[in-house]
Amino acid sequence: MVDQRPHRTPGQLILSLLQERGWTKRTLAIVLGVSEATVTRITNDKQAVDARLSIVLEELFGVPAARFLSLQMELDLAQARLVTQPDPDRATRALLYGDLPVAEMIERGWLHAESVRETDKVERELIRFFGVNRLEDIEILPHATKKTAANSALTPPQIAWLYRVKAIAAEMPVRPYSRDRLKASLPKLKALMIAPEEARQVSRVLLGCGVRFVIVETLSSAKIDGVCFWLDDAAPVISLSLRYDRIDNFWFVLRHEIEHVLQGHGKSAAILDTELEGERAGVTAVAEEERIANKAAADFCVPKAQMDAFIARKAPLFSERDLRGFARLLNIHPGIVAGQLQHRTERYQIFRAHLAKIRSFVTSSAMVDGWGTVSPMGS
After folding, report:
1. Residues 176, 121 share a domain
2. Of 104, 128, 147, which one is at a domain's C-terminal end?
3. d(CA 357, CA 204)
4. What is the tally of helices (H) and strands (E) in the chain?
5. What is the pLDDT along the chain (379 residues), one digit of tens a residue?
6. Closest Cα partner for 20 from 7, 33, 30?
7. Which of 80, 239, 308, 310 is a plausible cystine mate for 214, CB 3.0–4.6 Å?
8. Parallel, antiparallel, or unpaired for β 235-240 and 212-216?
């Protein structure tokens, strides 16, 4: 008859089975082909019952091998809990290293460490990067004292990107902001849309209006297009990621962020824009601030009335000649018309050859962090 009484350890179960059989430890040692000292260690729970021994015991006593292993596992866990000290920092590290792209931040030069394995150095650098006094105050953590409601909807990589932009922008020398100058600069910016290389003048124009303009390559998992925020409610900042190296995307996102500044958006909290591009644009509910900025950006690229008339005349067949002629009429690059036409018709394969690259021109005169360049500011 198999002993069904509860036992807390495999040793206790084996002793009970020996008693039931009328066996001594020496008897079991002879049957198993081991020393009596070994049996004593097993029954005293000084030596673990492994899978092989549990199968042999099952054969001898008719007790499922899984029961011995289950008792051994429970014993091992209980003993481990006695010697394992609780570490409140462990959960913090799990969130930081699990949610933040720490390796990429090191590679980008945002954190001054050789690798993620230099945990002490990395953690000191994270404290510096986020401008806090303690690791647990870093904003991505659930109970961070510096956590803001505005950033709670952002992902940790997006928050990290935003902190990098803020650090760079805060050190930029720039004249006081003038809304009138920015509004008056729109025709100047419009004139630059004729060719990709003209985009190198954008930074100068915006700085002349008191707008800090920063180009920061997005982190791989952040999917950021741009951001607008203010320093001390008086100094607007526009940053683009240029994750899509196309003339149409650049001018749409830039004008979108400029409209945020003109409207005074982003003063209470940064407005971080994602998925302004292509097939994903507008798939989620759009806030009123975004609707206003989207409309201004689209009209800036191609005025709605003129685009409506062009589509009404030419749809559904749009020729190269039509595209180029319309672009000449508007005095802008054909790629800008192509981008707006793709969005309006949801035909994202047409006229792709006109979507000229622009990043190299924009970054030639702007404050840049990314694509192998580390901004000296904010470091």
Report:
1. no
2. 147
3. 20
4. 17, 5
5. 444 556 789 999 999 999 999 999 999 999 999 999 999 999 999 999 999 999 999 999 999 999 999 999 999 999 998 888 887 778 888 889 999 999 999 999 999 999 999 999 999 999 999 999 999 899 888 766 665 656 668 999 999 999 999 999 999 999 999 999 999 999 999 999 999 999 999 999 999 999 999 999 999 989 999 999 999 889 999 999 999 999 999 999 999 999 999 999 999 999 999 877 644 444 344 689 999 999 999 999 999 999 999 999 999 999 999 999 999 999 999 999 999 999 999 999 999 999 999 999 999 999 999 999 999 988 8
6. 7
7. 239
8. parallel
**Distance between start and end Cα atoms, the chain:** 75
What is the length of the chain?
379
CA gap 251, 198 in Å, rounded: 12
Does residue 303 share a domain with residue 176?
A: yes
Domain encompassing residue 94: 87-147
Q: Which one-letter amino acid corresponds to residue 230?
A: W
In the block, which residue shows the tokens 């018309």? 337
Phi-psi region of 266 (alpha: psi -120 to 50; beta: other; left: phi over 0): left
Pair 67, 12: CB distance under 8 Å: no
The DSSP H or E segment spanning 215 is: strand 212-216
Confirm whether pTM is higher than 0.70: yes
- Do residue 303 and residue 181 come from a single domain? yes
What is d(CA 151, CA 245) in angstroms, rounded to the nearest whole number?
27
Whether residue 5 is contained in a domain is answered as no
Torsion on CA atoms 131, 136, 138, 140, rounded to nearest 10 = 180
- Which helix (H) or strand (E) segment holds residue 237: the answer is strand 235-240
Residues 194 and 76 in one domain: no
Q: Residues 73, 65: contact at Cβ < 8 Å?
A: no
CA 34/CA 60 separation, integer angstroms? 15
